[in-house]
Amino acid sequence: MLPIIAALASHRIRRIPGRPIHTAMLTDLYQRPGFLLRRTHQISAAVFESACAEVGLTPAQYGVLTVLAAEPGLDQTRLARALAFDKVTVMRVLKGLEERRLVLRQRSAVSRRQMTVSLTPQGEEVLQAAREPAERAYQRLLSPLTPAQRCQLIELLQTLTDGLADEARAPFIPLQSGTAAPSTAGSARARRRA
To answer: What pTM was estimated for this model as a whole?
Structure first.
């Protein structure tokens, strides 16, 4: 078991002899899964943005471009769900990509209320240029871990996200074979909100 996972599993406030209770409370805070996950996300974003500085993409922008490459002409709602973004986040990310002329938004031919999104040729070029740096960022993020620890971390994170999907603020409905299809037990609530 990973040392950090062992620490999380035995999580509780322990009074340290000779130290005030607030020190134990800080120790408790710094060992909480939410704190560690948030901190890991900060590090992940920094590693990614550093690796992709030449192409100027954030992790969210890279995710949008990747999904659109797999599913051209996707509507904004399905795009948001495919990345577990809320409506405000997907609009903010799309606005930045549109300003750089990396994506094109158009009224849907199926429904005038929907907007479809596609990569522009420039968007395809930027995505292609970002693939190698994004892979380097992924490898750098996991570099402190052994191959077995990497697998264990991914499995544990998947277990957490699957087990608590109903608590998420935004639904996650991954794209599969060109259609949105839920892959987790928690996706039932996401489908109900759809």
So the answer is: 0.78
